[in-house]
Amino acid sequence: SKKLTTNTVVTYLNRLRTILRDAKKLHYTANDDFNISDWYPENEEVDNVYVTTERIMQLYNAPLDNQKWLFEQIDKLPLTDNEKEGEKGFFKFKKHRQWLMDARDIFVVGCLTGQRYSDYIRISTEMYYHIGNRTFIHLKQEKTGKEVYIPLNPIIDTILKRNDGHIPFMQRAKLTRDIRICGMFLGWNEPVTVHISQGNMTFTKQIPFCDMLKSHTCRRSFATNAYRANIPLSAIMTVTGHSSEEMLRRYLKLSTKERAILAAKEFEKFQGA
Fold first, then answer.
1. Cα(217)–Cα(48) distance, integer angstroms
2. DSSP bridge partners of 202
3. Structure confidence by residue, pLDDT tens digits, 108-121
4. Is residue 152 classed as helix, strand or coil in its secondary structure?
5. Around Cβ 12, how many Cβ atoms within 10 Å?
6. Please, is 54 exposed, middle or buried when counting C-beta atoms within 10 Å of its C-beta (0-12, 13-18, 19+)?
7. What's the pTM?
8. What is the Cα–Cα distance from 237 to 87, expressed in whole angstroms?
9. 172-182 average pLDDT score
10. FRET label pair with 46: which of 21, 31, 65, 217, CA 20 to 30 Å apart?
């Protein structure tokens, strides 16, 4: 009746189950009904996008601080004249253009490290770790406590150095909003068909690609781009910190044919080919 998505309900149940589990451990209750299988509904596969390596570079090289370029991009948008003037009036201020540049830097670092928002927002040059003649970013993931070593991409080094050795801080909601604006200005407006479940209703809707971007798109993009570059799943897991290949596969945004190829490779391992 509240028209919640399936995954929102699963999240609420997981939180409640955590509270009940602790209550049982502390002997506040002897009830263990939360262990019944009905309390463990599965997450629904949702429609997500990933940003290709080419688009990551397009974003990285975009002259977001150039007012003339921004105004030219705004003129290309399917907006009314009043809406275009409103956008231009907002982005004529350097501070507002800086927000776009900060969002760009954060998002690119996320796409090149494969970490969660809570981790890539903390990355700094103080995390550099040298092994032989290679430099890594060494961090402990907040969610899992796992230590990961991320090969340092020169682009990340450039971004960190121009931001005094750290990533600009931006709240998750603002990052999502501003990176969607960046995508809109770059012309990432092709429609994406998504399947939406709310309550007992399921329907499809077309949403512009840029409006599908969010802070977690970075992690999905890293995994998918790495796989497309023929990097083994085991190597990708070393960087992302996924606990199993099965968990990692959920992040891969692949076509049906690409999934078939991945399945064939797994069967080859099984058959010892």
1. 8
2. 197
3. 999 999 999 999 99
4. coil
5. 11
6. exposed
7. 0.82
8. 41
9. 97
10. 21
